[in-house]
Amino acid sequence: MRATDILKEEHQVILRVLHCLAAAAKDAERTKKLDTDSIRKSLEFFRGFADACHHGKEEAQLFPVLGINNVSCTPATRHILLAEHEEGRGYVRAMAENLEKYEMGDTTALPRITTLATRYIEHLTQHIHKEDECLFPMADSRLSAAEQEDLLKAFEKVEREEMGAGTHERYLAIANDLCKRWNVEPVASAHSCCGH
Ligand SMILES: [Fe+2]
Ligand SMILES: [Fe+2]
User: Fold this and answer.
1) How confident is the model at residue 122 (pLDDT cuts 50, 70, 90)?
2) Half-sphere exposure (CA, 13 Å, Cβ side) for 153?
3) Which ligand is nearest to the CA of 82?
4) Interior angle at CA 142, CA 79 and CA 135, nearest 5
5) Burial class (CB in 10 A: 0-12, 13-18, 19+), 40
6) What contacts 105, CB < 8 A, 6 or more positions away?
7) pLDDT average, residue stretch 141-159
8) Residue 47 and residue 155: Cα distance in Å, rounded?
9) Which of 47, 61, 48, 59 has its CA nearest to residue 156?
10) pLDDT band at 196, cuts 50/70/90?
11) How far is ligand 2, taken at its centre, from the CA of residue 106, in Å?
12) Cα of 181 from ligand 1 centre, angstroms
């Protein structure tokens, strides 16, 4: 398995949870009630898995190795991808703030959460497609087998030391809980180095 395959598999897990978030937002719009447990779990997943683990590996390991400031496969420049990660963090923060307000009894926070969720889903989905279709093929064509292997080892080291044992399984369990709740096909045994 190449380092880029790890990142691609993680994208598939993230996309599943985005489907769950879409279902939760649609349900909230219809019932005018928010399944706060699902939103809380989704935000925990996006913070811990999509951002800290997945974007962390891209930012600290993949981008520096590629040096993708001036690549021909625009618009996937490093600057744009980093800005998109930051924009995603903003959506997650705003959803968390509004979830807190909703839980304190502020029902006006509900439409703000569903709007933010819809924008976040759109945002992260296009970001993932951009990486899958442009960044990773470029990485695969540029990196030697030895460089892919070094990158894989670097992923494993960072996750073992920074994420901690069992972290990957914990986030997969959250993803599968959400899939079960929202009738989304569960995540298979995605191979990842998180927590291993
Ligand atoms: Fe990314
Ligand atoms: Fe990514």
Assistant:
1) very high
2) 6
3) 1
4) 40
5) middle
6) none
7) 90
8) 18
9) 61
10) very low
11) 34
12) 27
| Three-state DSSP class for residue 161 | helix
- Encoded tokens for 188: 């298979």
| Tens-place pLDDT, residues 45-73 | 999 999 999 999 999 999 888 875 555 56
Architecture in CATH of 3-181 = Up-down Bundle (1.20)
Residue with tokens 């087998």: 145
CB 53 within 8 A of CB 193: no
User: How far is the centre of ligand 2, averaged over its atoms, from the C-alpha of 36 (Å)?
Assistant: 26
Which of the pair, 191 or 59, is modelled with greater confidence?
59
Burial class for 55, CB neighbours closer than 10 Å (0-12, 13-18, 19+): buried
Find the range with the poorest average confidence among 59-68, 107-116, 176-185. Answer: 59-68
Please report, as a single letter, which amino acid is at residue 24.
Answer: A
- How close is the Cα of 148 to the center of ligand 1, in Å? 18
Is residue 175's pLDDT more than 90?
Answer: yes
CA–CA gap between residue 66 and residue 139 (Å, rounded): 7
Tokens matching residue 10 = 């993680």
DSSP letter at 28?
H
Q: What single string gives the DSSP state of each residue in 59-85? A: IIIIHHHHTTTS-SSTT--HHHHHHHH
